[in-house]
Amino acid sequence: MGGAAVGGYLLTALPSWTRAPRVAPQTVRALTLSWVLARLALPLSAILPVGLLRAIALGYFVALCLTLARHLIAAKVWKRLWVVGAVGGMALGDAGLLANMREGNDASAGPLVVVLMFAFLISMIGGRAVPAFTRSWLQGMAPMRVVRDNRGFAAASPVAILAGGGLVLAGQATAAGFFLLLAGSLLGLRSLGWQGLHVWHSPALLMLHLAWLWLPAGLILVGTALLHPQDLPMASAVHAVTMGAMGTMILAIAGRAAMVRHGDRLMAGPDLLLAFALVWSAALQRVLAPFVPSYWPDPVATSAALWMLGWSIFLWAYRRALQGALPFPIFSARRHGPAA
Fold it and tell me: I need a surface site. Which of 33, 187, 238, 336 has the fewest CB within 10 A?
């Protein structure tokens, strides 16, 4: 799910970065097919030859890397090439998980590192999108309020996430925990200047701000679980990043394509808002599951039900975006000037 969301966002943002035509539909269809084949290959991993399994399972990320690199290099947009490296890191993470799965090795560190790679991407992409969309909205609604984005925090937090992931791979849980606590704290402090308390009149923006909250919270929880595993189960902490940061940010950004344009504003309908509330609540329920009294209803089952219901409503709301061509740019209603 995360890989598909990353690909969808990057391919949609690519024309704004390169000032070139959109990615050809046949390329998108081929990438979609490779993603579907990878999903089908995993249940058959025990019977497929190793080489064929790797080719199918990793084909999507490799093809996405090549597509992004070709367009960015052709447009000489060198500052965006880091996204190719990030997608390549996901491919390496998947390769490691496949190797461990086939050989029966302990892959306890592998999934966490892949999750932290997604956290890094959210910090880079969401860390640019949320303040940019907020700044654009405030210019028209409350020009006296200024979005302040601390560059030091913005630069240091992704480095701390990567350091934490590297230390997890090296088996240095204590040091990794400190770096992830640092990353979460920096991201939380950074967002204090984003005027998040003043976006209540824009549900589309509010969704982004509430989704972002899961990233610093999730990294702090993962860091705490590494330092004090007896007090906080790692599974709950990881769900704060996966269901919380990844799930809600995917919904908040992808949902913008299904929102109604009103001038230079995007209006979130009640169905999208309900879907977001359910997914956000599902994440909270799953994170708090270890602390729910035993006589209460099963919190994991409740979380799963909320999650599935939320995404079902999202798909229903998204049907409008599938019925025809969308105005460009997709994620912003602003038609003129540089894309956010």
Answer: 336
Q: Is the pLDDT of residue 144 over 60?
A: yes
Distances (CA, A) of 239 to 4, 288, 304: 18, 10, 12
Q: Which residue has the higher pLDDT, 94 or 226?
A: 226
Q: Write the secondary structure of the chain as one string of H (helix), E (strand) and C (coil).
A: CHHHHHHHHHHHHHHHHHCCCCCCHHHHHHHHHHHHHHHHHHHHCCCCCHHHHHHHHHHHHHHHHHHHHHHHHHCCCHHHCHHHHHHHHHHHHHHHHHHHHHHCCCCCHHHHHHHHHHHHHHHHHHHHHHHHHHHHHHHHHCCCCCCCCCHHHHHHHHHHHHHHHHHHHCCCHHHHHHHHHHHHHHHHHHHHHHCHHHCCCCHHHHHHHHHHHHHHHHHHHHHHHHHCCCCCCHHHHHHHHHHHHHHHHHHHHHHHHHCEEECCEEECCHHHHHHHHHHHHHHHHHHCHHHCCCCCCCHHHHHHHHHHHHHHHHHHHHHHHHCCCCCCCCCCCCCCCCCC
In this prediction the pTM is 0.89
Non-local CB neighbours of 23 within 8 Å, separated by 6+ positions: 11, 14, 15, 67, 71
The candidate with the shortest Cα–Cα distance to 127, out of 249, 13, 274, is: 249
Count CB-CB contacts under 10 A for residue 262: 9
Residue 260 β-bridge partners? 267
* 232-256 per-position pLDDT tens digit: 999 999 999 999 999 999 999 999 9
Assess contact for 282 and 307: CB atoms under 8 A: yes
Band (pLDDT 50/70/90 cuts) for residue 47 is confident
58 has a pLDDT exceeding 60? yes
Q: Binning pLDDT at 50, 70 and 90, where does residue 334 land? A: low
